[in-house]
Write a structure and sequence with these properties.
This protein is mainly beta and about 170 residues long. The protein has one helix and 15 strands, in the order H-E-E-E-E-E-E-E-E-E-E-E-E-E-E-E. The protein folds into two domains: about 50 residues, no CATH class; about 120 residues, Jelly Rolls (Sandwich).
C-alpha cells in the first residue's frame, strides 16, 4: 500500500509544477489544465485561479480545455465555439468583453455536436425551442456571459448566464 501511495505522489508531481508565489508564504500548484491551486505555508487551501483565454476568432474546444474561461474580445464579427461531444463534467464559461450592442456584430455562438442539446439556457419567460444540434448565441453586449456544464451524454446545461441568449437554430 505504501508503494502505491508513493507512486501516486510521484505521478502527481510529474503532472503539475510547483512554484513560489510573489506573496510571502504562499505557493501555487499549476495543473495541466492551466488552473492554479493556491496553498499557504501550512498546507492550507487559499483559493483557485482558473485558466483564462482571450479569444478574437472562432475556436474548436477540446475536453482538455474543460474548466476554462473564454473572454471574447471581438466587436466586429461573430465568434463561433464548436463544443466537444457532451460528456458528464465538462465545463466552460464564455464572457463578452467587447460587445457593441449591434444586433449583427460581436456575437458569441456555441455550436454543440449534432446529437447534443442545450438545457435551461433561454431567459426567464421564454419558450425553450432547442433541439439536438441547435446553436445558442449572445445578443452582442459587453458582459454577456454563459456557463455550461455537461450533466450527462447529449445535454449541455446552462448553470449561469448574463444578458440575452437565444436559439440560433442549426
Amino acid at each position: 500500500m505504501k508503494k502505491v501511495r508513493m507512486l501516486a505522489i510521484i505521478f502527481m508531481l510529474l503532472m503539475i509544477t510547483v512554484s513560489a508565489s510573489a506573496a510571502p508564504n504562499l505557493f501555487s500548484v499549476e495543473q495541466a489544465t492551466g488552473d492554479t491551486v493556491l496553498i499557504n505555508s501550512t498546507g492550507g487551501f487559499e483559493g483557485l485561479r482558473q485558466a483564462v483565454e482571450i479569444v478574437t476568432t472562432s475556436d474548436t474546444l477540446t475536453r482538455n480545455e474543460s474548466g476554462k474561461n473564454f473572454f471574447v474580445n471581438n466587436s466586429t464579427g461573430w465568434v463561433y465555439f464548436t463544443l466537444p461531444i457532451a460528456q458528464a463534467g465538462l465545463h466552460y464559461r464564455f464572457v463578452a468583453i467587447a460587445g457593441n450592442g449591434d444586433v449583427t456584430l460581436g456575437k458569441i455562438v456555441l455550436q454543440p455536436n449534432a446529437i447534443d442539446a442545450f438545457v435551461g439556457c433561454v431567459n426567464d419567460g421564454a419558450v425553450t425551442t432547442f433541439v439536438a444540434g441547435d446553436e445558442i448565441r449572445s445578443a452582442s453586449a459587453t458582459g454577456d456571459m454563459l456557463e455550461i456544464i455537461a450533466n450527462n451524454g447529449n445535454n449541455w446545461t446552462c448553470v449561469d448566464r448574463q444578458g440575452i441568449w437565444a436559439d440560433n437554430g442549426q
